[in-house]
Amino acid sequence: MGERITITTEDGAFSAYVARPDRSPAPAVVVIQEIFGVNQVMRDVTDGLAGQGFLAVCPDLFWRIEPGIDITDKSEAEWKRAFELFNAFDVDAGVKDIAATIDAVRKDPGCNGKVGVVGFCLGGLLAFLAATRTDTDAAVAYYGVGIDARVAEADKLAEPLMLHIAEEDQFVPKAAQEIILQALKNHPQIEVHTYPGRDHAFARAGGEHYDAADAQLAGGRSLAFFQKHLG
């Protein structure tokens, strides 16, 4: 279903996985990866969005470290590598690469001009920052790690943002969640949903903490949000 495109920046070029909907032109969604690279889970998310009517694009944001990372959450060695990549990753450069992806997608003949972003884990943080630093039309962040340290950036937010927070997230402790909720819950552009009993990556199909019911609930909320703001 997917294809590959190349996105060129001042720093170099990187690839992105693209899935196209049946109808064109369509609104677009940039899918922002977890710490495992553009793996099968991310490609499935991208394909799923195309099936829902969006031009979906998942850029390789680890290209500055090593292009083409594609690992899983199934082995200790892969987890070790994933955290090495996470620690080596330049968040600010990543947001610039997302901005370049948004620009490239807007110019695609298959795009109607509207572009949203959705991110998971590390990508959840990047989706939040894309909402505050880029011209994306709407953003959805799933269990973003590190948002609590950057809530002040919400002052720059001009377009709608949805946050999905797992209440038992091992990577976003209760204290961090409280900072996020207190700072953002009354922001006019931000919609926050919390999921009791859920751990990090509850929407990662096949993952240890996957919960089908809440993944479907969050996915339905995200779809309605994008249909409203990108339609």
UniProtKB/TrEMBL annotation:
InterPro entries noted in UniProt:
AB_hydrolase_fold (IPR029058), Dienelactn_hydro (IPR002925), Dienelactone_hydrolase-like (IPR051049)
A Pfam cross-reference name: DLH
Q: Which GO terms describe its molecular function?
A: hydrolase activity
Dienelactone hydrolase domain location is 14-229
Keyword list (alphabetical) reads: Hydrolase
- Kindly indicate whether the keyword Hydrolase belongs to this entry: yes
Top-level taxon of the source organism: Bacteria
Report the PANTHER family cross-referenced here.
ALPHA_BETA-HYDROLASES SUPERFAMILY PROTEIN, CARBOXYMETHYLENEBUTENOLIDASE-RELATED
Q: What is this protein called?
A: Dienelactone hydrolase family protein
Its ancestry begins with: Bacteria, Pseudomonadati, Pseudomonadota, Alphaproteobacteria, Caulobacterales
